[in-house]
Amino acid sequence: MPDRPPSDGPELPEVQMHLHRQDEPATGVVVRNEVCTQKKAAGFVRHIEFDVSGSRLAGNFRTGQAFGVLPPGVDDKGRPHSQRLYSIASPTRGEQGKGNIISTTVKRVIDEHWDTKKLFLGVASNYLCDLQVGETAKLLGPAGKRFVLPKNHADHDYLFFATGTGIAPFRGMLGDLYYQSSPRSATLVMGSPYATELMYHDHFLAMQQDHPSFNYLTALSRERQSDCEEGLYVQHRLSTHREQMTELLSKPTTLIYICGLVGMEMGIFKRMARILPPEILSQYLRVDPEAGEIDNWSRKMLHRKLKPTRRVFLEVY
Ligand code: NAP
User: Would you call 12 exposed, middle or buried from its count of C-beta atoms within 10 A (0-12, 13-18, 19+)?
Assistant: First the structure.
């Protein structure tokens, strides 16, 4: 690595895409389907694993990519359901290191219709969460090529921000980073409403015990944490851990990955702009002088007046 890498980012690996399309889906056999939040969680979030042996997905996906799921049945216009994309939660070598078991993190969508106020159940999420071990699903993909670890992934420091099920790719990436080699360091900031809703919490705590260069921080938005009086969003960890974060972001080797709720990226950029000296901020975000006061920055300015550099990887929905 050069002393100060170009803010246009590291080299990314080649990835395989769309090896199975809608007309020729792969068959995934469910080998595990279990809750991955804490006891008494209010939501229903499940970690689901599929054996894709014999399909072109096997050995050909990379953590950070997504796969498609084709739910059975038809939509309200009588057309077959279209595919839904789910982030891969397993490392690139799969759940058991042989490339044939792919996983994802699924939250049941249970809501009210905006207009009718009647119960709304998400088609694909509830279909997936209901699947029993041994049952099969039609899978497509893989999809996505930008939100992946760089080729020389051990040469970097990482700052991962996740909200809710946005944790899925980071579970996989941290697997790649710590099971295959060891990165310079990795910090994960996980945002959730309550401690009960934290996903894979024990897994990350154990990882932190085993790997001193891994740092796991949580940001609970609706309850107090031992180190903070009020609820926090992930971006607030840039302030509560300002010294540590500034040091991390000042390293020429640091990359930022953001996954989860749309809107979280702007909160993170605003907070970075407040705590970082301009010469460090510019390594991650190019700010046009016309962007004006930080308080007035909005999502509409993204990629126009506020341009993330290629040291920032964004996947928000
Ligand atoms: P959740 O459990 O409700 O947790 C989301 C957390 O983020 C809550 O603590 C929430 O706080 C907080 N939050 C809300 N607005 C925020 C903001 N502007 N900045 C920072 N934090 C904010 O999440 P979820 O229901 O699992 O939803 C996860 C989202 O991630 C979904 O929209 C899903 O589509 C997306 N996702 C994207 C990908 C991908 O792009 N590949 C993968 C997986 C998931 P309060 O609710 O207390 O305000």
Answer: middle
